[in-house]
Every structure is written in structure tokens, then in C-alpha cells.
Amino acid sequence: MTRYFNTEGRCRPDQHYMVRLDERLKTIKEQYVDRGKYFVINRGRQYGKTTTLRALADYLWDDFAVISMDFQKMSTASFADEPTFVKAFIDYMEDLFWGNERLTDSVAAEAYQRLIGLAGQKERSMDEMFRCLSRICRTAAKPIVLMIDEVDSASNNQVFVDFLAQLRGYYLTREDSPIFHSVILAGVYDIKNLKLKIRSDADHQYNSPWNIAADFHVDMSFSTGQITAMLEEYEADHRTGMDLAAVAEEIYQYTSGYPYLVSAICKIMDEKLSEMGAFADARDTWTKEGVEEAVKLILRTKTTLFDSMMKHISEYPDLKEMLYAILFQGERVVYNQDNHTIELACMFGYVINDGTHVRVANRIFETRLYNLFLSEEELSNAMSREAKLDRNQFVSGGRLDMERVLAKFAEHFHDIYGDNSEKFAENDGRKFFLLYLRPIINGTGNYYIEAQTRDERRTDVIVDYAGEQFIIEMKIWRGTEYNERGEQQLTEYLDYFRKEKGYLLSFNFNKRKETGVKTITLGGKTIVEVVI
What DSSP character marks residue 34? Predict the structure, then answer.
């Protein structure tokens, strides 16, 4: 069977090209499972949680008996009340044991049968179920590890909270009343936020079943080296002649190692780009240009990952406001684990903590968010309307004339906002430029904001159009000395990108300002400077 890149559900090394998990599994076993930890693997959607759990279950079997459950397999009706849940839970356990010799050989038959018999009793309670589970764990040939995947699919149910409370009680006294050696829960929500889903705002607390989980600090994103190793396996089968390190680095630059996005880019390059004339040859596909084209297709695709993002932004207005401020206003949000909005954004995987501040997790998320926010204003924005009227005049011979784009933007900005320009540009100058740029490059080009240079004073926009890259620095005018420093920074940035020409868009509110377009040469680089 030919292996392929998988973006639907669990990845299997015999069927799919995937990042090898050996080091991750070793770390989880040694730092958490061997030490008997109760912990939660909470990451954003499609972050490899299920793949990791299934691989971990196999990895642990030499030393542990593993009971691996998935609460998606239990219907909402299973959580209707305590007796119903107890029966559903035991029935699920029986299904896991059926035909699984490794599991059945690990537990005492009498203790197991006592648990199974409880399901058939009219009077059955959580208390009795845990007493049965304790007997199983006490008499087992190996320490037992309990894994529950998709744990937050059940978290709207009070009976599930009661289950966690019982589990906590036994876990804390396991020397006297043996229970699972280690407990692993997996889902998007971390264990304390499960309670937020079923309690009123006045009732939010972080205690009881929520105060025993060990912090889980294992990095589940993919590094450039891991992506390279995955591509090496693909290359061994397909002989494309790709520059492995360069392609892996380009994929990482767009995804920051978000597992689903890495696999999605590779899947599109492997299966979709060959249908396009420019990428008929695999040697042309597995290139920087191929990665860029795959990213454009992802950004135009409706996926469950992006659906979740849109849903969360709609459900949490404070989250939307924070992301907007980061993207458009250059606000540097200091990371604070006690801030509920920041905590949610990190938990969902939309932002990451860079050590001091939070930033959007990757370029693809950024662009998708930019597109959302811009589209909400596009229909009513005068600058966007002008761009749609102008767009046919900027491309000649398949090449984008960025200097003309900037000059026309400056002209329209002055005409539309006039004396009110300062009020708009201080916070929204970059937004208005992107509103103007988007209709011009839409469908052919792509853009992203360089996170390392985004702040309240400066933003670098990177535009890719038909294989050509444009570096545009946008900044607020803070005087001649500051402007000259900005010009020098741009030349250094051009060196990094190996470009000879760059663009500087300055919003100048000095009453005696000189507006217009000029070209300067600095450090051997050409800089087109547009002053508004």
C-alpha cells in the first residue's frame, strides 16, 4: 500500500507519511506516566492528540496495562444520569476487553467479572463502580493506565464531573484504595476549563477534580528537523529531487509546526498541485513556490479547524477584540495565565506565549484572521471599493507593479480621508492598506505580516505574487532621525530576504510634510518610499 499524507483522524506510520513520535513518547512515559501523574493533553483542534495517545498506548504496553477510551463513542444519552453512565462506561470497558488478550491477561478474572456484573444490576452507582475498578487495579498483573480521549465531548454533563470527582478521590488515596497508576485525559479544553462549560459565571471555581492535574509541557508542534525527516521518507519513495531542508523550512515558516497545517500543505502538494499546469512536474511542485500555492489553497478552503476558529471568535467577543488589536493595532499583549481571554486563546491554539507576550500562532492563522476582519469591513469601506476599480491597472506581463499600487493607495487615502487622516491612520493605517491590497492580489497573490516587526509603530508586510516577493514596511512618521533608522532597518530586512528592492509606506502627520513617492539608494538597496 502506498503511503500518503493524512489530515483526517489518526495517523499510522504504516499508512501515512508522518513525523516520528519516538522522542515525544519517551518523554511522556518518563516524565509523566512512570511517575504516576494525572495529566491532561490539551491542545487545539487537529493537533495530533489522538495520534499521540494511540501511539503512547502501544509504547507503554511493556510496562503497563492500558485502558484506552474515547468519549466520542459514548452518546449524550449515556450521561443522562448516574446509573445510565455507569452502565455505559462498563459496557464500553467490556468492549475494550473483548478479544484483547493483552488486557484480559493483565487483570484478575474475578475482579473483572464483578465490574461487568454491576452493569446488569438495577441499583448501580458510581461509588460501586469505583470500588470494582479499585479491585481490578489492586489485583492487576501490571499497573493500569487509563486514557480518555475527546474528554471535553462529555464535559457539559454534571454526571461526568461527578466521575472526575470520584476519580480524583481515589487517585489522591491510591496507596490505600488502589486505582489507575496514571490518568491521561485529552481534549481541547484543559481540565479546569471543563468546569467553565457547565457552571454559571458566578460559580466558576478551580478546585475539586481540577486541582490535581500535572502541567503538561511536552511540545507537540513539529520542528523543522522533524518535518525534514518526514519529507526524507517521502523523497525515498518518490525521488522528486527537492531541497529537503529548504522545503521543510518554508513549510515551518507558514505553520510554526502546527501538525494539521503541516500535513495539509504536504497533502496538497502531493495530490492537488499536479493538476495545475505550473506544477505538472514533481520537481516544480516540491519547491518554495509549491508551498506558497498550497498555502493559498488552504486559505480558500473551508475546514473544521477554521470553522472552529470562526465559531470561537463569534462566541467570545473579548477573544475577537484581542486578536484584532494584536493584528491591526500592533498591540503587544503581555502573557498572563490568569487572564481568561488569553488562556482561552492559548488553549484553542490560536496564540502562543513567546516568553513575555502572546502572538498569533502561525502565518496561516494570521492571514485567515486578517481575511475575516477585512472582509467584515470590505463592503462598506471606500478604500476597498477604489481597489476593485483600480485593480486591472497594476499587473503587466503577469507582474505586479507594487510602486504603482502604493502610489495609488496614497492618492486615494488623501482624497478620502483628507484632514481626518491622522485620526484614521494612527490605529488603522495598516488595515486600510490591506483593504486596498487584498482585492488587487486576491486569487493570484498572498500576503502575511512579519510578526517579529509588528508593533504600534512598525509593520512589515510580505507580499507574494506570481513567484515574486515584495517587502513593504509600514510605519508612523516620528521625525527624520526615526525615518532614517527605518530605512536602515528595511535594508537589513532586505538582506535577510535576499532582495535588492523594498518599499516604505509612511503615515506622516507633520503639517509641513512632503507627501509623494521618491526612490533612494541605501546600502546598495533600492527603497521606494511613499509618504502619506
Answer: T
> How many whole angstroms separate alpha carbon 398 and alpha carbon 454?
30
Written as one letter, the residue type at 223 is S
DSSP type of residue 31: I
The predicted-structure confidence for 398-426, as pLDDT tens digits, reads as follows: 899 999 999 999 888 888 876 665 555 55
- Residue 462's closest CA among 477, 451, 474, 447? 447
CB 127 within 8 A of CB 165: no
Which segments within 227-323 are labelled E, that is strand? none
Amino acid at 13: P
Q: Using alpha carbons only, give the angle 336, 474, 532 rounded to the nearest 5 degrees.
A: 130
Neighbours of 111 (CB within 10 A): 17
Distance CA 255, CA 16 (A): 20
Q: What are phi and psi of 241, to 5 degrees?
A: 80, 15
Q: Can you read off the three cell numbers belonging to residue 351?
A: 496564540
DSSP secondary structure code for residue 467 in this structure = T
Domain 22-210 sits in CATH at 3.40.50.300
Alpha helices in 181-243 (DSSP H): 191-196, 224-238
Residue ranges per domain, the chain? 22-210, 224-299, 304-360, 365-531
Dump pLDDT digits (tens) for 129-152. Answer: 999 999 999 999 999 999 999 887
Unique residue bearing C-alpha cell 532582495: 499
DSSP states of 324-380? HHHHHS---PBP-TT-HHHHHHHHHTSEEE-SSBEEES-HHHHHHHHHHHHHHHHTT
Q: Which three cell numbers stand for residue 153?
A: 465531548
- Determine contact, residues 189/197, Cβ cutoff 8 Å: yes
The rounded radius of gyration (Å) of the Cα atoms in the chain is: 28
